[in-house]
């Protein structure tokens, strides 16, 4: 038997993923770009509808209030996405609502001064204004860390072996929003999952006029088909005698969004009234802002790889975080009911379609702004059962996790040091948040349950986030464990040149500001 050559059993590290026809600064034809942008808009609806659907009823709001919050969240998502893609990191990322803010928002909802208001609508308004005040104050943290370059300075402690588990946990840590939700309506969710995998992967080479239709537009096609199928089941009375939980997850007419939505409604700042400010609530919200910062940092690393761009330099990362802080400020001013972060599912869609174009994301932002003002039309798309989105998440979250693991190709994975860091940080990144989740479900409050509400929010929010726990463990171990002569094993020879804007000539192509603004804001 012939001797096997080393190059036949290993693959050289590759800075850019293969098979991407359009990268960050190349654009598909306008027709394709519009359809691709609409796909990103549809995908962003899952989070934009789910967060208000959970929080608004607890705040005392009715269906009309919920629709207005959904519209406002989509409107601000569109604005933040445009700002980030034009002036922030300039990566093709959607800046949408974040689940990281749910714990401190729940603490505000349960505040005795608000929970005791007897009138539901008045309680909703007062609670919303309290949330707005906390978001406005806490947004200053990201603005300061970003524009002062402090976060960029801290990012110099990152390495491929430290960031790989953090980015991986960005996807793995969202497993609760995957198949556990699909299982709530398996007759709708499972067909969606199978159809999406078949069309986007097994039939991806089918082309019409040299365009791989099924690979690029599989999300749009699958959602249309399964949504129609779910509508048929609903109209045929398949869920007449089902439980309430099954009807909520399976029926296409239970959201009450279309009937409650106005034809035209333009969200505007302070539409709920003047925000109210409370020091304890604001301190508690800071924890979610820090989690959002860490999760977005991991998302930017993944998006850069899926857009065939270089890893964002420290200055660019800080600039993006600063603009994200402004985005959270806009969330507070408009009253979206939650803060902002990078949408992980939309990052995954870059990989599924193999289109990393910035223009596509900017078009999707236009759809978000447009349909958020046309209430009835936006509500029509927003009535898609969440089970359908959960099926797609099973693929897209897994794809983002795999992108994180791909950073390990630049490290020495025959090193026990690296194996220890990666393994322990991934395991604890999954295990610690799961403990906090199970404890909260059993006790109806988090493990931190002291008289200091802001302290409880800090502990319960930070340790409920898999990427945040992963970053704390991985970066600490990577910078303290056997550091001497470990630079090459950590992947630093490849990583170090991307720390500064001038470290790689391609950075100017990918990250320079538009309209020649770099003359006034030169990157370092």
UniProtKB/TrEMBL annotation:
Which spans of this chain does the record mark as coiled coil? none
Its topology with respect to the membrane?
Multi-pass membrane protein
Organism placement in taxonomy? Eukaryota, Viridiplantae, Streptophyta, Embryophyta, Tracheophyta
Q: What is its main location?
A: membrane
Q: Which InterPro entries match?
A: MetI-like_sf, NCS2
Q: The organism sits in which domain of life? A: Eukaryota
Q: What is this protein's name?
A: Nucleobase-ascorbate transporter 2
- One Gene Ontology term, aspect cellular component: membrane
Any transmembrane segments, and where? 38-57, 93-109, 157-175, 182-202, 217-239, 360-382, 388-407, 419-438, 458-477
Matching entries from Pfam families are given as: Xan_ur_permease
According to its UniProt record, where is this protein located? Membrane
Mention one GO molecular function: transmembrane transporter activity
Q: Which UniProt keywords apply?
A: Membrane, Transmembrane, Transmembrane helix
Q: Which family does it belong to?
A: Belongs to the nucleobase:cation symporter-2 (NCS2) (TC 2.A.40) family.
């Amino acid at each position: 038997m012939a001797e096997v050559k080393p190059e036949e059993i290993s693959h050289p590290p590759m800075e850019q993923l293969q098979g991407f026809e359009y990268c960050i600064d190349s654009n598909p034809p306008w027709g394709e770009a519009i359809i691709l942008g609409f796909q990103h808009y549809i995908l962003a609806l899952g989070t934009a509808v789910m967060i208000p659907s959970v929080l608004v009823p607890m705040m005392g709001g009715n269906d009309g209030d919920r629709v207005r919050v959904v519209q406002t969240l989509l409107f601000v998502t569109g604005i933040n996405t445009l700002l980030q893609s034009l002036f922030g990191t300039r990566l093709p990322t959607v800046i949408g609502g974040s689940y990281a803010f749910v714990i401190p928002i729940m603490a505000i909802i349960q505040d005795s001064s608000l929970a005791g208001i007897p009138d539901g609508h008045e309680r909703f308004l007062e609670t919303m204004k309290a949330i707005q005040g906390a978001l406005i104050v806490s947004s200053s943290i990201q603005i300061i860390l970003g524009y002062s370059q402090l976060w960029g300075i801290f990012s110099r402690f990152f390495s491929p072996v430290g960031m790989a588990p953090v980015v991986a946990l960005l996807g793995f840590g969202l497993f609760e929003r995957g198949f556990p939700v699909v299982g709530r309506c398996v007759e709708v969710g499972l067909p969606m999952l199978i159809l999406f995998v078949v069309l986007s992967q097994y039939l991806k080479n089918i082309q019409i006029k040299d365009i791989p239709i099924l690979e690029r537009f599989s999300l749009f096609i699958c959602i249309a088909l399964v949504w129609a199928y779910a509508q048929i089941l609903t109209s045929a009375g398949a869920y007449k005698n089902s439980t309430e939980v099954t009807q909520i997850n399976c029926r296409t007419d239970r959201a009450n969004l279309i009937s409650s939505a106005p034809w035209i409604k333009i969200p505007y700042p302070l539409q709920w009234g003047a925000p109210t400010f409370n020091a304890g609530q604001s301190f508690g919200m800071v924890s979610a802002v820090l989690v959002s910062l860490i999760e977005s940092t991991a998302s930017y690393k993944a998006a850069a790889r899926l857009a065939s761009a270089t890893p964002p330099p420290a200055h660019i990362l800080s600039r993006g975080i600063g603009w994200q802080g402004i985005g959270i400020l806009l969330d507070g001013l408009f009253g979206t009911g939650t803060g902002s972060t990078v949408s992980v599912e939309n990052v995954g869609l870059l990989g599924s379609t193999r289109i990393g174009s910035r223009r596509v994301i900017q078009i999707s932002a236009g759809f978000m702004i447009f349909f958020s003002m046309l209430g009835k039309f936006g509500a029509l798309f927003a009535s898609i059962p969440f089970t359908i989105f959960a099926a797609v998440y099973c693929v897209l979250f897994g794809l983002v996790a795999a992108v994180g693991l791909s950073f390990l190709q630049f490290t020495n994975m025959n090193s026990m040091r690296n194996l220890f860091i990666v393994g322990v940080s991934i395991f604890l990144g999954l295990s610690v948040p799961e403990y906090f989740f199970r404890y909260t479900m059993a006790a109806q409050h988090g493990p931190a349950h002291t008289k200091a509400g802001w302290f409880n929010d800090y502990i319960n929010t930070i340790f409920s986030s898999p990427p945040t726990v992963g970053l704390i463990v991985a970066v600490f171990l990577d910078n303290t464990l056997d550091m001497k002569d470990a630079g090459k094993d950590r992947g630093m020879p490849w990583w170090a040149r991307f720390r500064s804007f001038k470290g790689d000539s391609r950075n100017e192509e990918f990250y320079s500001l538009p309209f020649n603004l770099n003359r006034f804001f030169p990157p370092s």
